[in-house]
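ligand=iron/sulfur cluster
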Amino acid sequence: MAEEKKEYWRWLESRWTNPNINWRQAKIITGGVDVGSVSTQAVIMADGDLYAFANMRTGSDSPNSARNAFNWALEGTGMAETDVKYTVGTGYGRVNVPMAKKAITEIACHARGANFMYGPTVRTVLDMGGQDCKAIRIDDKGKVESFLMNDKCAAGTGRGMEVFSDLLTISINDVGKMSMEVDVEPEPVSSTCVIFAKTEATGLLRQGWAKNKVLAAYCRAMAGRVNELLQRVGVVKDFAITGGIAKNIGVVSRLENLLGLKALTPRHDTQLAGAIGAALFAKGLLEKDLKK
Amino acid sequence: MITAITAGIDIGAKTVKVVILKGKDVIGRGMATTGLDQKESAEKAFKAALKEAKIDQKDIDRVTATGVGRMEAPYASSQITEVGADARGANFLNPAVRTLIDIGGEEGRGIKVSPQGKAVDFAINEKCAAGAGAFTEAMARALERPLKEFAELALKSTKSIPMNAQCAVFAESEVVSLIHAKTPHEDISRAVHDSIADRIISMVRRVGIEKEVMLAGGVAYNVGFVNSINIGLKLEVIVPEYPEYVGALGAALVAAEK
Amino acid sequence: MLANYGYKDGSGDYFIAIDTDKCNGCAKCVDACPQSVFEMGDDDSDPLREEPVARVSGEQRKKLKYACAPCKRYLTTLSGGKTEETMKEIEKLPCVVSCELRAINHSW
Ligand code: SF4
Ligand code: SF4
């Protein structure tokens, strides 16, 4: 099991080593580092299997965050940095990963990582991060067939949810659960724009709506919105959700209703998808180099 | 012949505005914020305008309604679209106006106006706060300053810095990090106004920008915004005395012509 | 692969879709677009691909509604979205016309 360290605002820093793998017997060892705006993950893979990972908060500078996470992943394994033959960086700080030979965008890495975590049947991946929302359709090998990324508008991102959790003074961890505590499902908030939705919600509260009813209306609006984004790339089952909102039952269950599909349960923390994908690309690139 | 007294009522998402005309002279104006009950707000604005005009409801010969809620005014004998009313009002205030930019709290419009005061072409931004007055309001809140003071700050700025966010919510975070980075508030204000002016100008470009350009809507009171628009367009826009009443005025003029 | 660049905000959907399987890297769209919306570069979603493909530049991705406004005068009279009439107008956009392999499409 993963050992857990300091508690941060909404998730725990953690690291893990796979007890069933002896890395000294592995032929190919690769690394993947995903430097996001909030968290940084480093994973080490042995022959394409997950050997170790570390998940930390991103500090003020990307190179240091990448280094810290990478070192923590190696900690206690007896492995040295030089044993990792190829490392790929991804995420928004991907060009600032010092040990990486190559940087690859999060869309490609995410798709590849989702294929690893959920198995080859997953075809549609929704990733809802703090500041963006991605919809990706992939084939059975994890290759991207169609994608879109919405990072212009806060509606449909974790940030939009935070605005509501602030407005209602309810912890971001509880909003999803609370939104389920309604007898009758209210109509969704009609404004898509977070700023206007906030004004609308203030009006609803003034009319005497309970907080959980307002949350239900917002979670429903959010589910409707990401559904629209998903429809642009086309929804094919199986379907999986990653990113912070994957933990928000209020949005997830309403989205599942709209799609008529259940989301798959992952093998690992979904935050790792990008880093795992990066390490798998590293393996492919290394094999290509060796052939030359 | 007795001069007709007519009224124009502009029922918007945020405010209701009324203009009363005697012939072609404005004799009363009234405004109310749109509450839950649009009819009630409309009545309030009407009463205020009647009071200023020192006349009675029954003295009014005809009413024309405009704005999103124009169907909420059953006493109106005709309706006209916001765009049509805007063009008419702008032309009356200054016949040389060919482009009207009207920015309200929740909506922005660019209208190409013919010499006869007809709307030839228009572009609208609605339902996204990043292209409307709500954007600057949110940024003023982030800086914890009253809107007017926030707007005036922009004029003292010495440096133009670009903003990346194209969303009011993300822009708030960007403003907060600019504050943390000890960026002078003057420059932040300028950056905020430049960024919204840039979006508005790009939108209006779809209809083509031709002189004279008039700025209407409540946001025209914002000197920081006017400044950024002038810099962006490389000309001086005309700001009328009561910019938020241009649509209601246009409606009243239409009623007068009927 | 279908790469959808752009965004959806409260006011609508603004996506340019580039079919990277069709794109041969000729860069004609880069020259055709008056707003420098396109650039040539690595295929973001297929890191193992070697040939460059057309992408929407990072600078313009969040502003497409505005960048394309002068080309899309038809939106004044048509509602946008995929109606038959808008689809006809989209066919006439400089970028769409410039691409002989028909790899470029617009959502509005
Ligand atoms: S609709 Fe609202 S939340 Fe979305 S980009 Fe516009 S301002 Fe931001
Ligand atoms: S419509 Fe095409 S050619 Fe015109 S600005 Fe947009 S991308 Fe460029």
